[in-house]
Specification:
Mean pLDDT: 81
Shape: globular
Length: about 140
């Protein structure tokens, strides 16, 4: 299924990518930390303030953009599918010694061969899952 994207969709995606890059660079510059969400969630659960702020900023930033742009309602998969997806992502992050954000956003920027290999694997498995399971209609 091919979905046509408007200029507004592309501009929001570009702005979002730039903000993710700025947040990752800021975290590295301020705290010497890679912006890998799986590690940040672990650190947030142990009470590290910068990790708590970063993790809370993820959904709050999305809600802010939705409010500012008048975006429609957000659709989610069923709770069971979300739980299964979260479990599989957690297992994958453990096996890969990092998550998609740590390897893809930060690792490739540091020219890490391991991160490049992990990112290619993440994309291939994601594409395979979309082919197998499908994508919910917008």
């Amino acid at each position: 299924m091919i979905v046509a994207l408007s200029v507004a969709d592309w501009s929001l995606a570009l702005a979002g990518g730039a903000l993710i890059g700025l947040a990752a660079a800021g975290l590295m510059l301020a705290f010497g930390r890679v912006a890998g969400v799986s590690g940040l969630v672990r650190d947030a659960l142990s009470g590290r303030a910068e990790a708590v702020a970063f993790v809370l900023g993820l959904p709050l930033g999305a809600l802010l953009v939705q409010g500012l742009t008048g975006g429609g309602s957000v659709a989610f998969a069923s709770p069971g599918r979300l739980a299964l997806a979260g479990l599989l992502v957690g297992i994958g992050a453990g096996l890969a010694n990092g998550c998609t954000s740590g390897h893809s956003v930060c690792g490739i920027a540091r020219l890490s061969p391991r991160s490049l290999a992990a990112t290619m694997l993440f994309i291939a498995v994601g594409a395979g899952m979309v082919a197998l399971v499908g994508v919910p209609a917008p």
